[in-house]
Design a protein that fits this description.
The structure is a single chain. The protein has about 140 residues and is mainly α. The chain is about 60% helix and about 0% strand. It contains four helices and no strands. Helix 1 crosses helix 2. The longest helix is centred in the middle third of the chain and has 32 residues. The mean pLDDT is about 80.
């Protein structure tokens, strides 16, 4: 027996539901209200995680309540990204300094231009890290 053709609305990939808890069925319901813009943001986030919107809201709310997830404002994410990049740059510069130290400890010579370039890179990376750290501290102070 042939199945009837599926309409286009059923072609979407299946969304995941929240995992079941050992504590039994979830009977308590909470109504959450959003304006249209907020709803679109929440819906898009749920779709990125391939979850139903209500399931996504429930999972994220529990993760925040259990302190497994710390909410970060969108603008703070850029600052955190900058901190990560500055950290990577400092690691690279640190490697260069270690190589220079190895040469100098073995009575070798390091050209002044190379020393100056590594020093400039270090100062730039430290300044970048300072700016991002101060910005993040300001944002955390405003939230707290």
């Amino acid at each position: 027996m042939a199945e009837p053709p599926a309409d286009e609305t059923r072609q979407r990939p299946a969304t995941r539901r929240r995992e079941r808890e050992a504590g039994g069925a979830r009977e308590t319901r909470i109504k959450v209200s959003y304006n249209d813009d907020e709803h679109e943001l929440v819906k898009a986030a749920a779709e990125r995680d391939r979850q139903a919107t209500a399931s996504w809201i429930g999972r994220v709310a529990l993760d925040v309540a259990e302190e497994m997830l710390v909410p970060t404002p969108v603008n703070a994410k850029a600052v955190v990204g900058e901190l990560i990049e500055a950290r990577k740059q400092l690691k690279r510069v640190g490697t260069n300094y270690n190589q220079i130290a190895k040469v100098m400890n073995s009575d070798g010579e390091v050209p002044d231009a190379q020393m100056a370039a590594v020093h400039r890179a270090l100062v730039t990376a430290i300044q970048r890290l300072d700016v991002a750290t101060l910005q993040l501290m300001r944002e955390r102070k405003e939230r707290g």
